[in-house]
């Protein structure tokens, strides 16, 4: 991964857009800051001309990875579970500890806090029977699954024809391996195998992590990345990102909580995956996209807090998938806005809409849609959305309402062309 430099000039929006290492046994430690730092021990691969050097150097420069007492990065050593989750926690900004259900973690180990954090975030569950196996090695498919659970990329079903040994990939990891392969996080060996059961080395894990996380913004402040090849990860609230083109994905992690995160003149060619944020202070939206262009917006993660997202100016979002309780506010110009929204949350998930929307489709059973001062050109309740509810307030209007399943529709709003039901 190469860190993008700031561009001082503002982009022409439409034209440019389309053109752990461990303290265990070897005395290794992880840094506690995700900014670039100069480490007194120096950087030494320990192996001359190793292919993983740029990836390990990247993590080292960001304080995510250190070597042993001699500075050796030991790229050919297998990485442990504790080492891997330590990198994940630092990069994605996870700091909140929870309970410790693991009998083999006493609290005195160097990795005790990281295991607690990883368990609390919900991406690490150990080996079952309250055993973390923190010092155990990590297989390649396990590492992919752990990383993908944190980027929240969507699984890709089916077999993977890219690898000759795809049949040996377990069902629980197959969707993640497929997705990671498509996005370029992982690649096979020269013999076209993936070797899912083989243990992953520190060098291999560093490459996979560098490619997946991309440019990491881990503290509040103003940033401009210019033209960025690859992904960008935002793991802190209070970030303002301007004048940036991202050729890969933009990840807004679970660590981005209350507060305000603003994107101005940001254009993303891949997916924008929002798993963090919540209801912002002072009634403001947690995330605002101004004068930006997104192809795919995916809102996922915990339903503990309602995700709040606002768009304004010339912002256009072609496709939006909502998998958790969310509030969307649309203040974009006439030609911008949300073009196509798919709402498929867990049971009882809620979606609140304010503004103008082209098409909204409800697909999740028992999902609840609330239109508050909203205009929707086409609203569809899919046959899969059994027991869904739609509320249309008196300031809202739906031009076309299509119900493929019996649906409770309430409120005093108006509906133009409707099928199968009437307002109660």
Task: Describe the protein.
The chain is α/β, with parallel strands linked by helices and 424 residues long. 18% of the residues lie in helices and 29% in strands. It has helices at 13-18, 24-27, 53-61, 81-92, 112-121, 140-151, 171-183, 202-213, and strands at residues 215-217, 221-228, 232-234, 239-246, 250-252, 261-274, 287-290, 293-299, 307-313, 316-322, 326-332, 337-343, 350-362, 368-381, 389-392, 397-403, 408-410, 414-418. It has an eight-stranded parallel β-barrel with strand order 6-7-9-11-13-12-10-8. Helix 3 (53-61) packs across helix 8 and helix 4 packs across helix 5 (112-121).
Tally of alpha and pi helices:
8
Share in helix: 10-25%
The succession of helices and strands, N to C, reads HHHHHHHHEEEEEEEEEEEEEEEEEE
Which structural class do you get from the secondary structure elements?
Answer: alpha/beta
Radius of gyration based on Cα positions: 23 Å
In spatial order, strands of the major sheet run 6-7-9-11-13-12-10-8
Uncertain runs? 1-40
Cα distance, first to last residue? Answer: 56 Å
Shape: globular
Number of strands: 18
Mean pLDDT: 86
How would you characterize the largest beta sheet? 8 strands, parallel, barrel
The proportion of residues in beta strands is 25-35%
